[in-house]
Design a protein that fits this description.
Helices cover 93% and strands 0% of the residues. It has 2 domains: 188 residues; 272 residues, Orthogonal Bundle (Helix Hairpins), CATH 1.10.287. Helix 3 packs antiparallel against helix 4 and helix 6 packs across helix 7. The two termini are 62 Å apart. The longest helix is centred in the middle third of the chain and has 177 residues. It is mainly α and 532 residues long.
């Protein structure tokens, strides 16, 4: 990467970079100083020109009073002329060139106006003063504009110089950082990587060792250190290989012994646990067998009582079956009676209808009789009138007509009474018809209820017969259960004897497990003493 003639050290490079950055800093400071001085000069010149313009504007009011006086035909006031002359001389003392001449001309003309022989001469002097004031004002404005343009150009140039110097400084800094990264940081990083990766970076270290600066010396020392460390590592690896073989054999033997001891200890512990569990289970089994024996005796007595109750229930169900058969026959007879009553009610309904029709016919006959009675009454009235017209000759006929009239009247009253009676009969017949209809409905309900009772009693009879048969079978099953419970009681007695044997065996197993545990503990203790 670097030639053999490369001999710049880190200190030399840092000194070179310091000189370069110092020169840039001095150049920047010098530029700032020159710019500030120029800016100060421009500022002072602008202030002076602005002050002159302000002084010129201060004499404007005096000039206007003089102009008003001259053009009004009177002479100007001497103090005003003196103020105008003094102001022009003051401005002239601060100027040079043509502007100074214009200011001195204004002062001289103002003094000449005091000695003017007439108004015309004064007006001519006033015109000259006005022209010179305008020229002086334009000159001052142009000078201020020129100074402002120069100031703007100077400010822009100073800004550009700052930007250029900043860019130059930034470029120099980047250049220094890149070179130092290449000459200093990257070699140090390579050496650190070489330290981490050992022989894999020897080629890069050889290149770094060729340098004549501090990095080269560091690379040479690092190569020597790496070579020495590799030799020590090879020797250490050889010793470690020998020792690791011996340690591996010892560790394998210790691991086998430890595994054997752990298995024996686990077996002894498992035997102790199984023995204790077996003893506990045997005790619990003995207790449970006693409880089951008691429960079996109680179950035997309960099954016997249940068998008696089942027989009693079977007898009761048989009686219920006979009662249900009787109820079914009675319900059937009730249904037959309801059918007969329904037939009678139907006949009564038909008779009531016939009665209503006969009453209607009688009413029509009564109506005819009433009409005849009314006609007879009318005829009797006519006969009475005719008898009255006949006088004595018709007196007998009048008597007959009166009797006929009374007879017609009584006939009408009788027909009214008969009609009222027939109306009551018709109303009673209608009520009878309604009640007979209600009676028909009640009879039909009774018939339906009787049929439902008959059907339900038939079903109940079938169910009671099924219950009776099931009860008989249940009684047989209960007797069988009682026999099996008695057999179970005998089996439990033999199981209690077996539980006693198991308890004794578990106690013996606990004792043997404890002896095995003591033997294993003693063996482990002796092995530890021998190992120590």
């Amino acid at each position: 990467m670097f030639p053999r003639t490369f001999k710049a050290t880190v200190g030399q490079r840092l000194a070179l970079w310091g000189v370069l950055l110092g020169a840039l800093s001095c150049l920047y400071v010098a530029t700032e100083l020159v710019g500030s001085r120029k800016l100060n000069g421009f500022t002072q010149a602008l202030a002076a020109q602005s002050d002159l313009a302000r002084r010129l504007e201060a004499t404007t009011m005096v000039f206007e009073r003089i102009s008003v006086a001259i053009f009004s035909g009177t002479r100007a006031e001497p103090p005003d002329l003196e103020v105008l002359a003094i102001g022009a001389e003051d401005i002239a003392s601060r100027l040079d060139g043509k502007l100074e001449v214009d200011a001195l001309t204004i002062a001289g003309r103002a003094l000449a106006m005091r000695e003017a022989p007439d108004i015309a001469t004064a007006r001519a002097e006033l015109r000259v003063i006005a022209d010179k004031r305008s020229a002086l004002r334009r000159g001052l404005g142009e000078e201020i504009g020129r100074l402002s343009a120069s100031l703007s150009h100077h400010v822009e140039s100073a800004h550009q110089n700052k930007v250029l110097l900043s860019l130059l400084g930034l470029f120099s800094l980047i250049f220094i950082v890149v070179l130092e990264h290449r000459w200093l940081v990257r070699p140090i990083t390579g050496m650190a990587r070489a330290l981490a990766e050992s022989r894999q970076q020897d080629g890069e270290l050889d290149k770094l060792a060729m340098r004549r600066d501090e990095i080269g010396m560091l690379g040479q020392a690092l190569l020597a250190h790496l070579h020495g460390r590799e030799a020590e590592q090879e020797a250490a690896r050889a010793r470690v290989a020998v020792l690791s073989g011996e340690v591996a054999r010892q560790e394998a033997a210790q691991a086998r012994n430890a595994a054997f001891q752990e298995r024996i200890a686990l077996i002894a512990q498992a035997l102790e646990q199984h023995g204790s569990r077996l003893s506990q289970a045997a005790g619990e089994f003995a207790q449970l067998s006693g409880v089951v024996d008691e429960r079996a005796g109680a179950a035997t007595q309960s099954t016997q009582r249940v068998s008696g109750h089942v027989d009693h229930v079977a007898g009761a169900i048989t009686e219920v079956s006979s009662l249900l058969a009787t109820a079914a026959s009675e319900a059937q007879r009730t249904s037959d009676v309801a059918d007969a009553a329904k037939a009678l009610v139907d006949e009564a309904t038909a008779d009531t209808v016939v009665l209503c029709e006969a009453v209607g016919k009688i009413v029509r006959v009564i109506d005819v009789i009433g009409a005849v009675a009314s006609q007879t009454n009318l005829l009797a009235l006519n006969a009475t009138i005719e008898a009255a017209r006949a006088g004595e000759a018709g007196r007998g006929f009048a008597v007959v007509a009166g009797e006929v009239k009374q007879l017609a009247h009584r006939t009408a009253e009788a027909t009214d009474d008969v009609r009222k009676g027939l109306d009551q009969i018709n109303i009673a017949a209608q009520r009878i018809t309604m009640r007979v209809g209600a009676l028909v409905t009640s009879v039909e309900k009774v018939d339906k209820a009787a049929l439902s009772i008959a059907e339900l009693t038939a079903r109940q009879d079938v169910g009671s017969r099924s219950i009776s048969e099931a009860t008989m079978r249940t009684a047989g099953d209960v007797r069988l259960v009682a026999e099996q419970v008695e057999q179970l009681a005998g089996t439990l007695a033999s199981w209690r004897q077996t539980a006693g044997s198991v308890t004794a065996a578990s106690a013996d197993l606990d004792r043997q497990a404890a002896e095995l545990r003591q033997a294993v503990d003693g063996f482990i203790t002796r092995r530890e003493l021998v190992g120590a």
